[in-house]
# Entry
Amino acid sequence: MKDFFSHGSPFLGHPLLTAERTQREIDFLVDALALGPNARVLDVGCGFGRHTIELGRLNFGALGIDPAAAMIEAARARAEEAGVAVEFQQVAGENFAGAGQFDAAICLFTTLGQVAADSRADNRGLLAAVANALKTDGLFALELPQKQPALDALKASERFGSASNYTEVQRSYDAEADLVTEQFHVVTPSQTQTFRLRYRLFSQEDAAVLLCAAGLRIGQRYAGYTCAELTEDSPNMLLICERCL
# Structure
């Protein structure tokens, strides 16, 4: 069984992560983070670089970091193909060192809470690294699924694709360990590969406590990439945070 972010992952061809979606998300974040000309932005858990590259298209100085070699390789290739000058570094967010270098940071698409294949510890330590990396007046955008709505909507299984080329997803939640596990079976006529993703979910209160412990406080709360107010029923949380001084 492979890690979800390794070579061949279905994440690299995720059908919902379109260029149009990425552009809408970055357009919203540019305003929410009050990014000025030449602002430098840290993208934590950048995956294959879709947000980092879009920031580069807008002439912001962007650095994308991710612990997975396959993701960084894909991100660099996509940036080169797009003709966008951005930087990528293979490093876990919690291990990143770059004190006071960034005007803003982003951590999106359920990055926070992921659990490594050989561990029960999640990556919440990246929040302290983000706080350290921000300039004094820097802002941080954290996107997360909201715990209870996410659990209410959790589907035990789904299947996408055709009869001969498809991905089957199986999901479970271990309440004692507080872990969601997703197994992706990627089937083609020539092979079947299985990838596993494990992560924790957080409530608004959980997120606020973790952020505060890392030296960050929530300024604005949005129900995703809209100006809609975040409620307890909102599937997604987008939290705009500032450093505690």
